[in-house]
User: Fold these one by one.
Assistant:
Number 1:
Amino acid sequence: MDHQSEKKTAPIRIPTPMRYCMNLTLIGGLWLLFFGLIRAGSITNYWSGIIIMAGINMILAVSLNVATGYLGQLPLGHAGFMAVGAYAGGIWMRSTPAAGLIAADKMAAALPYVLAALLFSALTAGVFGLVIGIPALRLKGDYLAIITLGFGEIIRVVLTNIDSVLGFKLTYGAAGLKRIPKFSDFTLVFVCVILCCGLIHMLMKSRHGRAILSIRESEIAAESVGIRVTYYKTLAFVFSAMLAGVAGCLYAGYLGSLYPSTFKFMKSIEILGMVVLGGMGSMTGSILSAGVLTVLPELLRSVADYRMVAYSLILVLMMIFRPRGLLGGYDFSMSRVLEQGLNALLRPVPQQKGAGTNERSAK
Amino acid sequence: MNWLSLAFSQIVNGLQAGSVYALVALGYSMVYGIILLLNFAHGDLIMVGAYTAFYAMTAFHLHPVVSVALAILISTALGVLVEKIAYTPLRSAPRLSLLITAIGISFLLENGAQLIFGADTKSMDPFVRGVLTLGNATVSYAALITILVSVIAMVGLTLMVKKTKLGKAMRAVSEDMGAAQLMGISLNKTISFTFAVGSALAGIGSVLYLCAYPQASPTMGSMLGLKAFVAAVLGGIGSIPGAMLGGFSIGLLEALVSAGGLSEWKDGVVFAVLIVVLLVKPAGILGKKIPEKL
């Protein structure tokens, strides 16, 4: 009897397999919605291009969020990793038979090459992340920001000038790497966004993720309880670089031509702006603000000149009045929202229901 | 002889560019020394100063001396304004927020300038002409003025920081903000004054930049500012002679790289120097080793 009453007042929890099913359904539904609209022609080519760009920016923002929001560092060279990924993917796609297959509209046959390109981009960017991260992460704060900025600029200068040094055609310098087969379609970008977010989520919910968060809170305390600070810092940094490389590869496959001047310091700041506006440490925030900041300028074409001014003004005002970003550290979870709703409906007595989760979102 | 005079002119070029870097680096160094803020907007003050001088001379046909004074005045006012509006409310905020604000201000100034003045590069006739002939070699008056002015500015700044009461207050605040406040030093006044001096130096730097390359563009400040920051780090951040030394070194290095036919690699080399300095001797050549505050 006693046992039963306890069961009645206990907050409802949705079982884990059901959570996965719910999330997969939601993702599938979202894909079906957009895919259907694009197929039916309700979303024009122009807008589906913008949606693809928004997806690429989302990957960039969530990947930078790993280093900024979760690890608590401020790398300013994210565009450099994107550039590495983009050029790696572009050069790979040009030199494999995939180009001919895509030109002949045989996407299915070209798919293995595309996946290999994404992997190759991620690995190349990851190697760069490792080479840059090991020395850079010895520094902190402003110095880390400035050294990553330096590395980012060096990557751009090298991409511009490497052909003249090596004597063969690799990046085509400032003239740009052209005629990359355009392999990024909506479905590919969508899957990549979901995969990247899923990977980050899995990492952050694991003990490795908690180690990374503890470094953000206090490096000394983390070290004193036996967390390998250097290892986890490098891990998060390389992971962030790899995802940026994936975004770069998709970018190359969407535009079909690459110019080193795209990956200036400005690009890094743009990505940082997305993370900061959404809320550092909130994946939902990064995704939302990346989407909004990509789509909004297209809606406001008539005042396009003021776009960047407004963008920077928002950045400054945000820091002064709401430094944690729009969502702060809040992350959306459908199962949590549902649980809270069900609890409110079926368990009207104000117990300690969902105390842990409420605390986080209200922080 | 020909080779010698070529080397001489390259050295003068390097020193001239280095003087501008040094002046800007001084501003970076002072601000960083006092509130530990990497003031990204500092480079863009140069852009504002350059535009002011440019329009004063071309559109309003003011005398160069008046234009120069105006440029210095406006960049100083803007520097203090930015500090009051954007940095003061964040004084107790995390350093990351402050840094992002500075980046935002830099972005704002650049894009604002682009909106007002247009994205194109505006060129004018050089307002300092003529060369000084020394035997086989020649030195332009512009280079001479640039180097002289920057040296005078550095000496003046050193004297001010060492001898005056405000200079003493600046040193006290940079050492320990709380203790300085307890000793009756006005924090707001001192920090604003530091920004004013730093921005005035940026204003002077902008005019000297115009002497060397008579043109203005909205993004001219960002790369210049970054390189000046490299100079400040190289010399040792927080140190006045260090900033000067760093500025001249970067200028000479750039001239050397350009003379070697690698001018495309100039920016890359400067940042490579930065990385090496940060890894080998983060305190810089003349800087003191300060443990990072936790």
Number 2:
Amino acid sequence: MTAIAGGDRAALAGLYRELERPVYRFILSKLNDPHESADILHDVFMEVWRSAGRFEGRSKVQTWVFGIAWRKVIDLRRKTGRLDMPGDPPDTADEGVDTEAAVLAGQEAVHVRHCLEELGDDHRMAVALAFYEDMPYGQIAEVAGVPEGTIKTRIYHAKKLLLRCLSGRVTRGVAT
Amino acid sequence: MTDRSDIEALLPFYANGTLSEAERAEVEAALRDDPALELELSALRAMRDTLQAEETRSPGEFGLARLMRSVEEEGRSRSSGRGLQPARLWRIAAVIAIAAFLAQSVFLLDRGGPGYELAGDGAGAVRVTFDPDATEAEIRAFLTELELEITGGPSALGLYDIMALDGEVSDEDMMALQASPLIETATRDD
């Protein structure tokens, strides 16, 4: 980051090559639009280039870059009126869930993608970073700028919603 | 949340292997006594494996070329001492976005036909055409290994500008480009 802050383009290219794919995948999982996601990815790395001098090293570089991406996604969704943050699911979310069916549906990309898209932005963000990037909850909390407990609560509810959705896909016989 | 829900909240992080030793032990103890929790863990692992197995086509080297052009453009406008008007910036952004889109499209389609000049100035660059069957991933790996990057193009003839990350392309790299099955033609842009 010091090299990037000093105007080293090769260092920026190196960071881009290291993080471009996971950051793009993270953005795409929120926007579901490859062209829009490519534009946001570009904006993220332009911001990295412009603000590298402000990186204080208090978090991992990866966390910092994902944090920029998350804020840009949220800004875009706010601007376009697409922000969706549904409330927590009812405590009865487990009722009628066939977990064995959810295990089966969890192996089908089309079901998993569908159920992920059903989640609100905050829930989906936490699941995407936990499952695509294998991030610990502490790091996800840093990316989102919220306490660790909030991420655990979001994951807890997201998990219930995902299992219910996946189980429903199988029991309703939705084709893959 | 109750104790069980605390464990449930940790379960996805048990599945992705990021819990501390103490948390892991806590989850494992709960799993031993609770077959339903074990089943939930299987579902979470299945989801994680499915998501990680998905192929994502990211902008790759084309995105990097677009980024480098924007960085250069920004540097030029700063060093010229006069800021660009917002409308002009918007137009540049639009041109860059279209160029990046065309880069991807033209790469995948036929690159023959009468040509135009490359969009970039290309000074000191090597001009190449890629083999039509070369994939973006292969090109990315090859250029990364040589520490080269795409800095311009494509023209309607499918010509791309290639430069070394630290400046001019060495003779050694030039030979590697010419010898690669991923590259159809490679010539210095004098």
Number 3:
Amino acid sequence: MRNIIKIAAKNLLRYKRRTLLTTALIALGVVSVLLFIAVSGSFKSLMIGQITDSVMGHVQIHRKGYVASIDSLPLNRNLNAKQMAKVEEILRAEPAVESFTLRLRLGAMFSNFTETTNIRLNAVVPEDEFRAMPLLASRLSEKKAGEELLVPGGVLIPALLAKGMQVTVGDTVVLVATNRDGSVNGKPFTVHGVLDGISGPGGRDGAIHLDDAKELLRISGVEISEIAVRLKDIDDLPAVTALLEQQLGGLTNKEGQPVFEVHTWEKLSPFYNIAKMIDLMTLFIKVMLVAIVLVSIMNVMIMAVYERIGEIGTIAAIGTTPGKILALFLAEGFLLAIVGTATGTVISLLAIAALNSAAITFNFGMQTGLLLQPAISVGQIAPILAMVIFISVLASLQPAWKAAKMDPIAALRHV
Amino acid sequence: MSLVEAKRLEKTYVSGEVQVQAIRGVDFTIAPGSFVSFVGPSGSGKSTLLNMIGCLDPPTGGTLSIADTDVSTLSRKEGARFRGEHIGFVFQDFNLIPVLTVYENIEYPLLMVQSWPQAERKKRISQVLAAVGMADQAQKYPGQISGGQKQRVAVARALITNPKLVLADEPTANLDRETANRIIALMKEMRDEFGTTFIFSTHDPKVVKNAETIFTLEDGALKQTDTGGIYA
């Protein structure tokens, strides 16, 4: 085999310019794909991270039917103490779960004493919320100095609302809410911080302490609208979701209907569709790479066979078997792919390093100054390289087969 | 005892509805270590006969035995293996591989056809290179040497596997008189040194006069067999 590779390399070097152009084309294709994967992957993971780590968590658990009517934030579809305890028991037993936060979601009227508008609020236990949503604190563009981020009597309000209502940190506002029985209650709050919005559900919600929400809604016991769960590793999402669906799905009410519903961030966030679009674009880029490799290698190998018909006749005449002639031409396609992919990979890694050192930022929706950090793993590079090499050998197969099947006498007569 | 034995050998080419009988029931035998020439005008069937003896073209009738093997029934792959094992070729246009050096061209059959170990390969190549007088040109490429030197390399490549038989199709056609004489002398020396049988297809009187057996072909039939160097 080493001899076949050696002779194939010598054959490629006889047409230096053509070999250089072909490998350059393959390298360019590889660079395009790897850079696209690295950059789009950075964008995707950044956006997914923003969504899951500052508002949604990786998985959310609700009472059955809550998500279908989530726009009205129904208080009659909250989880009670017994149901919540069951969920907590399961989550604490699951090693893949890093933390979770209990939320009571409500709609309220927001007044700055001169104007009134609507606000959607997450009532939370601040320690749990900030632990499960580690990027939430980074969304606070303004915050009250010298105090905890959220204490009873405080409210975090979305930036657009703060701007529209001309409210700043330290101002007193009044929140008025209607409870499940239709009774209205109001309570003054101090603005403790202003939250930058992010794309997707909950991205423009304010936040208050859970105890304040209970007081506002006159809830005496325990009521929770949703449980947002953060996993240690997002790759465990399918397994943990399946486990939770299995354990919670079996729990039914008196009517025999399931009590809980489990949703991943993918089902709740419209950004998931953007992520899927990015994946689809990556697939198209890969298909283009396949086409580039297929056409360029096949073209070069067809030319190589045509130009060396006499030589093929000679080596066949002196006893080279058709199998070895086939291997010789396949080896040429293989070598072109190896050199092209190796060059492309090196250029891609250098370009990724350059992009990282350039610290490029971009804006997405309400978010500004997001740092692009392209990265690519061996697990992402290896399939691309394997695909290019496979396609190259495949593209060489037809010309190589033709060479192997050539009649030695006709080949020797060829001028 | 014969190295090559043909009995009622025939070759008919079919092109559409037209049949061309290139070889018509030829019988001959060639002894080991012979220096044999097939002669005749163009289209007489010399090259066809040589191709059949070289297992490049199967006969359509009769039998052809080389080194006690009936080669008329060999498959393409078996034919390639048989050639690699028993037959060397010298071509009119030398047919050296341009990207390989003189050394590598001679080494090619040992590497790609017979898979010799490196040490034995090296020893054998040195021996043959010295025999054809090309030891000092070993690292040159075919484009860097003369026509006569190329044909020496081709003879060396044909002899490198120590074949029983070397087939040479018009080996001196592209060489000047003096170089052609040297190549013929070289092949005769090689026959004497290695005991190899040389079979030529040629128009060249210089080759013919050196042949010990001359088969004259005409319209695909064997018209005359001369032995003992009658043209000398």
